[in-house]
Amino acid sequence: MPTITRSLLLLIYFSAIPWSPAGAADSIEKPIVSPATVAGTRIVNSEQLIEAASDMPGLILIDSRVAADRTDGFIEGSVSLTDTDTSCASLAEVVPGKATPVLFYCNGIRCGRSAKAAAVAVACGYSDVLWFRNGMEEWLDKQYPLVH
Question: What is the value of pTM for the model shown?
Answer without folding.
Answer: 0.80
